[in-house]
Predict the 3D structure of the following.
Amino acid sequence: MGSLLSLSSTMLYSAFILYLVATFFFGFTIREKHSSSNKRSIAANIGIIVTIVGFVAQVVYFITRWVASGHAPVSNLFEFMTFFGMTIVLAFIIIYFIYRVSVLGLFALPTALIIIAYASMFPTEIAPLVPSLKSHWLYIHVTTVSLGQGILAISFVTGVIYLIKKIDQSVPSKRTTWLEVVLYSLILFVGFVIVTTIFNLMDYQATFEYTERNKAVETEYHLPAIAAPNGGQLVSENVMEPLFEAPAWMHGADAGRKFNTLLWSFISGTILYGLLRLFLRKRIGAALQPILNNSKLDLLDEITYRSVAIGFPVFTLGGLIFAAIWAQEAWGRFWGWDPKEVWALITWFFYAAFLHLRLSRGWHGEKSAWLAVGGFAIIMFNLIAVNLILAGLHSYA
Amino acid sequence: MKNIKCDCGHVNPEGTVLCESCGKPIAGNQHIDGNDQKKLLNMRYDGTARRSQTYNKTIIDKIWSFFSSVKVGVWLIVIALIASAVGTIFPQQQYIPADAISRDPAVYYPETYGIFGRVYYQLGFHNLFSSWWYLILIALIGVSLVICSLDRFVPLYRALKRQKAKRHYSFLSRQRLFSETVEVTATEKEEVIKKLKAQRYKITEENGHVLAEKGRFSRWGPYVNHIGLIIILLAALLRTTPVFYTNEYVWVSEGEQTVIPGTKSEYYIENEAFILDIYDENDERFKDAIQKQGVVPSNFQTNAIVYKAKEGALVGSDSELVKVAEDEIRMNHPLEVDGYKLYQSGYQLNEVNQMTFTIHEKDNLEGEDLGEFSIDLNDPKSEYELENGFTVSLADYFPDYYLDNTGEPKTETQYPRNPTFIFNLFPPNMEEYETSFVGDIKGAAEAIGIDTESVELSPMSKVIGKFATSLDPTGENDYQIVIKDIDFQRVSGISIRKDHSLPFFGVGALIFMIGVIQGMYWQHRRIWIQPTENGVLLAAHTNKNWFAIKKDIEKAIENTNVKMVNDQQELDE
Ligand code: HEM
């Protein structure tokens, strides 16, 4: 049992490294003359093979963890997000074999890497399933939604590539700013991963005590407290004193700690972004633009649309139809306006609007690309914010 | 109707942009699809005459045009999207947590979320999804769906049925994919057609004019999926009627048998046992997680028997009941009987069944008691006369006691989950009485660190009774009433659903899925090959996935002189 679990985490770790290696190989393709055409380059071939090996490693992680825990590992934030990373890789592999665009790997794999790294910052113990999750529909529903979202994520990736290539970087504009915002948000995740890892290695701990509805509650910080819980008292010794208290309207389970984590992500992400800017001496978008010299805008646009066209039905099936069937089985009501459900509906509305705008109002190219980015923002919001902030029936973490 | 006759002889309905037969742009109508501004033709609906674009005189025309506009449709969708997002900022009323300050929304939102909460409540966002304006919004989307689908489907169907292989030059040259080859031999042309056939194109030929077509059925995908959506909306309408949908809830304690609400007293449920299992904290797999999270339940279950009253029997007479179902009702495993479904929806581990009290002299609590009485919480009396002459009357009773924030004792529910009493005690032969305040066993248990939501109090009933509140509000009492024993019962919460609208939702969802897949995973591709003096014109159109149609053409013209089509796309940004 223990050995199965350690095999499982080794496999996840290997998958992570392999995706990283594959990213470099896709990176080598950008110097080749013909990288975005059908002719295959050696670097791209190695890249896709390494990606597939990584994917297989992650499948082994998934299966061994399933065997070890007795249920499909999609039941908490860590498991669910790593799985999402895996479906992004799968979607990338599929789309790669349709279009053979190797620059896609250079952006899709880092997206998956960030998500898997982010997931690993959350508790990774195997948690027992509460009765409402004990159903075959758990994995039917979650895996289908996740696959749909993974395919939709590819449209985000091509959308971002499109924008980096398309937007005129010679003068600052609203578009260059927004593109920087998108890239900066990705860097925030990296910032979060870095700080969390550092303080985890240091085994940092600070305990606060505060009262919630006349009961004394303790909360444990694993990052130095910039913001203490509202009305909280630091009980640990020899740790950093908080600079201020979280505002009073932030209550509920561990709101102070989550707020503190958010602050840390912003601070570290901003520093990281600042360092990058200093080092590159230009906007990140501008720095990335030259590597896309060989990419074709119309093909990128086509892939954006195609991945929405493929992902939308899969998402509908998993996120709305299977979800409803399960809710009917578990609670006797197929739809309950729970925040998670509502955000699935919002995602669905959003992509429906995307499709209509494109088909009937001719929103191609850059407009489509911005919409694809927006759709992914909604998906990530549903995965993270709805779980951590708008707690409802589905809140895992 | 002012029909328009094309040069090719075909008679088109008023408002046609491209001749249904040969595709020649009809002069004077090009502004309708914006073709006058562009080199390429707008092929969205093959230039057919759509009602919404043709008539705009009467009020009906205007409403029709309004709702058939995709712009309007998208706006409706976007508004619904934003409204839904706002609806998740704070919990909806039904999700106000049980341990909130107050479950009264007028109190809860301002108290918990300050000024934003107050505004949220006052604007009605706490019940957004059943508010009239949200429902109207969804209904408008439905209306828009019906109208815009009809507006487009009918003419498109007509045009695709009437299209001829032979096309006008200006139609071909203004397609996105087009090429002109001056010199092509007849065998080469045959070769191309053969290869198109091999790729499963359907070939129509008319005097050497060729149309190769594939996947036309996918054009109907959107209309099919819209029909699915309309069925779902209609099902939602049906569901608001009691004929199609009932939703009830019943609490039934262990060993008890009670009528199932919403069944016109036809069905009864008996709770044989309620079972709550938790995960073993020593389980190697889950040890770490349980240590962090605390007790994790693994199963809630009611062993239930359902009876049906015999036809014509008197309501409530046990002998006339027939057993119709027996099952373990668990989460994710409802019991089904005659179109009803029974779901395990809640439980109370520590509801009180009966409480026994003793009366003591206040300064001699350890000594012999002066009398004893028991209250059946399912049926409390207003007065209890004891054998030795004491009388106890219930001045006030709070079945589910809590102290609100003004310090008033209140009851949360009508169920005896935390029974608390104000007794008036009349000693033998006395007119004067003493008042005492007794109860709040939940408070007593929590004070000694027991989580009453997940731990059964039954084994500790004596201890808890001893610690429970017994107050003398005046400070002048001679006697004290003490809890001697508490008999707890476990109560199972079962919700009862009858939902005949489900098949309609199912059919709607299925049709929707068929429609989206049909429209998304296939594409409608057309390739025209038209003879010129010695060569051919080659043009192609697809409704999506241009990458694939180009590949099809590449394959078809391989090893021939026919020139590859140029992509004349005008990316308009
Ligand atoms: C949330 C509700 C809706 C969903 C999920 C939905 C779904 C779809 C889908 C998947 C397509 C195919 C798109 C493509 O092939 O790229 C489509 C097409 C279309 N939809 Fe909707 N739709 C919705 C509401 C509406 C509304 C309210 C209107 C009315 C204005 C509308 C009008 C259209 C039109 C005109 C088309 C194009 C049909 C064609 O080109 O043949 N839809 N819809």
Summary: The first strand of chain A starts at residue 206 and ends at 212.
